[in-house]
Amino acid sequence: MENKVWVFAYGSLIWNNESFQPLDTIKASLKGAERSFNKKSTKSRGTKSKPGLALGLELGGECLGTAIQIYEKHLPELKKREGGYLPIETPNKSLEVIDDEGRSLKCLVFFPDSKGKNYLSKDVNIEEKAKIIKEGEEGDNGNARDYLKEIHGFLQEYDIEDKNINQLYKLVFG
């Protein structure tokens, strides 16, 4: 019997996960972290000279999303997709994933590497982030403006409220 793992999805992994053949998908909440555009994207959503921003997590708060269950054999592919993000196992002393029935899940959560050269600290305010998104160039997968629009739209479609994303969206798109 193949081993299965739960992975917490807070961004595009919520809806763009077919290649991992999810066995189950449930609404879940990550206690101890919230969404944040906190990673400069110099390849996927921007360039080295005009980076965009990619979505990550910041410690503190709570993040609504989904937990997807996949076969463990898909983890190398998922880790490659989430390059530059560190898989952290929950529950731990600061993070816990809770399913929609209030149960704690043993789950992997991908965090941006806070020691990485493209990581933006909490000191970078939302207005500065909006400016980076607006000024970023096209990367291999488009630009950060379209990415923010996609994230915002899908979170609404999945009925996931996120005040940080909504505020950033208003700053970028008026």
List key phrases describing it.
globular, single chain, 7 strands, alpha+beta, 7-stranded mixed sheet, 36% strand, 174 residues
Widest β-sheet, arrangement of strands:
4-7-1-3-2-5-6
Distance between the termini: 52 Å
Give the fraction of residues assigned to helices.
10-25%
Our Rg estimate from Cα atoms comes to 16 Å
What would you call the shape?
Answer: globular
| Low-confidence parts | none
What is the count of helical runs?
A: 4
Strand content: 35-45%
The beta-strand count equals: 7
Q: In this structure, how is the largest beta sheet organized?
A: 7 strands, mixed
Structural class: alpha+beta
**Order of SSEs, N→C?**
EEEHEEEEHHH
Q: Output mean pLDDT.
A: 94
Helix and strand topology:
Blueprint: E1 4-9, E2 24-41, E3 52-71, H1 75-81, E4 85-90, E5 96-99, E6 104-105, E7 107-112, H2 126-135, H3 144-157, H4 163-173
Parallel strand pairs: 1-7
Antiparallel strand pairs: 1-3, 2-3, 2-5, 4-7, 5-6
Helix pairs in contact: 2-4, 3-4
Explain what this protein looks like in three dimensions.
By secondary structure, the chain is α+β, with helices and mostly antiparallel strands. 24% of the residues lie in helices and 36% in strands. The chain has 4 helices and 7 strands, in the order E-E-E-H-E-E-E-E-H-H-H. The chain has helices at 75-81, 126-135, 144-157, 163-173; strands spanning 4-9, 24-41, 52-71, 85-90, 96-99, 104-105, 107-112. It has a 7-stranded mixed β-sheet. Strand 5 (96-99) and strand 6 (104-105) form a beta hairpin. The chain is globular and about 50 Å long. The termini are far apart.
